[in-house]
Design a protein that fits this description.
79% of the residues lie in helices and 0% in strands. It has 465 residues and is an all-alpha fold. It has a domain at 414-465: Serine Threonine Protein Phosphatase 5, Tetratricopeptide repeat. Helix 18 runs antiparallel to helix 19. The radius of gyration is 33 Å and the shape is elongated.
Length: 465
């Protein structure tokens, strides 16, 4: 039986129709029948490649398109679909080349410009990606997906205001798109506009309540606003969708630590470490929680675990130094602080902790200098103001000591030891009435503070005399 060569066109048309109907396996079979009849015809190889890509057989799809292009280098459809398959294979450089071939033949092809932009953005060539997206918008100014992609590339370049403008243009055309609202909110957060960011993220969640990334970004914004309880609630929502995400468990643990809920923090951090045993930040934060619970030896052990995983993790060195100071191992605490400062030279808490250890070693001038350094980086650091007050008291610089304690009271006025020490400085200056007031305030917060009772009695006798 002699085959009719015209039959190949029927198989070709059938393959195209089946691809258009989403019946890709049948389309593939039709394409193979066409190729068997006309193996040197480009179109059959293209139809086969398209069907293979839709069946997620990407490498075979690329090979089929390569054959189509050997036979007809001007087959724009094959170049285009080859680019799509290469995107799916994450072969972005080759994808760019394919889409540029499409544009060589069809320079006003908006889809090819868009896909070229996507491939370039995956290569982190965002300036070029934006240029591609701008070409799309020349032909299709209302293309919301391109406007969103353009905003994402602008965000990667930290051009957040332009990104926000791009997202807002996208929302003009697609006002109920949760992903655009999420990206808009994330860009606002990068500018520190956390309240506005929350509005956008809430809109994202209004349209897609199961949008884990929007819940995550919402939690980050709330964390930055120090609305910690709400932040935890948002992160808990994310954990419903990503229960094995160690970073989320770790972040929840860190926030609970900031809230002073240290036992709960340990539970969350243990979950983080269950999924990522070498998670340095979780070990460090666990050590910090243990430090705040007074479990100093355990805290040091956890910080050491953090430093095994990440020896240059400055925060772990800081937390380790604090725990060593808690055990009155001040020389070792200073060594840990010095290591921390190699990596975090502007870290206010570390300078304060180092200063405190020096004060405890009676190296008052050095301790004072470190605490003052801390205040350069964080002027509202209540601990540093207290420690300056203590060092100045020991140096008998009483007026300056009182001034430092008064600054600390602006931020936290209920710390009995600081009130007591301020009273001592006032007493040393013969300002007995002021001293009694400070002792009374110390006793209000700590009624069994024996030194305060003793000094109060002593000052009252002096005052009456």
């Amino acid at each position: 039986m002699t085959l009719n060569p015209n039959l190949s066109a029927v198989w070709s048309s059938r393959g195209v129709a089946l691809n258009n109907c989403g019946r890709y396996q049948e389309a593939l079979e039709s394409a193979e029948r066409e190729i068997a009849l006309q193996p040197e015809e480009s179109q059959g190889w293209y139809i086969k490649g398209y069907a293979l890509r839709k069946l997620r057989r990407y490498e075979e799809a690329v090979a089929s398109h390569d054959r189509a292009l050997e036979l007809n280098p001007n087959n724009s459809s094959a170049w285009r679909d080859r680019g799509h398959a290469l995107l799916d294979l994450e072969s972005y450089e080759e994808a760019v080349t394919s889409f540029e071939q499409v544009l060589h033949h069809q320079p006003e092809d908006a889809e090819a410009w868009s896909n070229r932009g996507i491939a370039l953005s995956r290569l982190e060539r965002h300036e070029e990606a934006i240029a591609s997206y701008d070409h799309v918008l020349n032909y299709k100014p209302d293309d919301s997906q391109t406007l969103e992609n353009r905003g994402i590339s602008l965000s990667h370049l930290e051009r957040y205001e332009e990104a926000i403008a791009s997202f807002e243009r996208a929302l003009d055309y697609k006002p109920e798109d949760s992903e655009i609202w999420n990206n808009h909110g994330a860009a606002l957060a990068k500018l520190g506009c956390y309240e506005e960011s929350l509005v956008s993220l809430d809109r994202a969640l209004q349209y897609n309540p199961d949008f884990a990334l929007a819940w995550l970004n919402r939690g980050v914004a709330l964390d930055n606003l120090k609305r910690y309880e709400e932040a935890i609630a948002s992160f808990d929502q994310v954990l419903q969708y990503q229960p094995d995400n160690p970073e989320l468990w770790g972040r929840c643990g860190a926030i609970l630590g900031q809230l002073g809920r240290y036992e709960e923090a340990l539970v969350k951090l243990d979950q983080a470490l269950q999924y990522q045993p070498n998670f340095a930040q979780a070990w460090s934060n666990r050590g910090l929680a243990l430090f705040n619970l007074g479990r100093y030896k355990d805290a040091i052990a956890d910080c050491d675990r953090a430093l095994q995983s990440q020896p240059d993790y400055g925060q772990a060195w800081t937390n380790r130094g604090a725990a060593l100071a808690g055990l009155e191992r001040y020389e070792e605490a200073i060594v840990s602080c010095d290591r921390a400062l190699q990596y975090l030279p502007d870290h206010a808490l570390t300078w304060n902790n180092r200063g405190f250890a020096l004060i405890k070693l009676k190296r008052y001038e050095e301790g004072l200098a470190d605490c003052e350094r801390s205040l350069q980086y964080q002027p509202d650091n209540v601990l540093a103001w207290r420690n300056c007050g203590l060092a100045l008291l020991e140096l008998k610089r009483y007026e300056e000591s009182i001034a430092s304690y008064e600054r600390s009271f602006q931020y936290k006025a209920d710390e009995p030891e600081s009130l007591y020490n301020c009273g001592v400085a006032l007493r040393c200056l013969g300002r007995y009435q002021g001293a009694v007031i400070k002792y009374d305030q110390a006793l209000h917060y700590k009624p069994d503070y024996l030194d305060a009772w003793d000094n109060r009695g002593f000052v009252l006798n002096k005052w009456r005399c």
